[in-house]
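Researcher: Re-running this chain for the archive, since the previous output was lost when a drive failed. Same request as before.
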Amino acid sequence: MEIEKTLLRKVGEAVHRFKMIRDGDRVAVALSGGKDSLTLLEALLLLVKRAPVEFSVCAFTVEQGKFLRPIEPLGEYLKQRGIDWTYYHDRPSFRLLEEQPDHGCDLCSRYRRRAVYEIARGLGAKVIAFGHTADTPKASAKAQIACPEGKLE
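Model: Regenerated structure tokens:
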């Protein structure tokens, strides 16, 4: 429980310091099924009960045809917990995979960003939350250095 307490304190401090969530906000958490996004979702669900502002939390997943294992079990888990989850099958991303199989990462990123904004708008969310660790920017920078055109040769 000590780790939960520390994590909640840090999340709460960041939310307060940077005014990330305001009274009445609906926060949409982007879920990949990985530990970062699931930890963020759990922290925000606990914060809903303790924060000095009232806000709600929902979750969504953008399917672009790149998950290595089925994402449906995540939906089952969230449903059992009573968490509002939207599973969005992004048709333009699948079309891109068919028409341009050798496209670069930059295109998928643009398509994902468009889908995220569409989903958030549809959910009535004013805040979009992504779970990233301190290693995520490092990994992205390495990928950009190794693959500046967005393609691995």
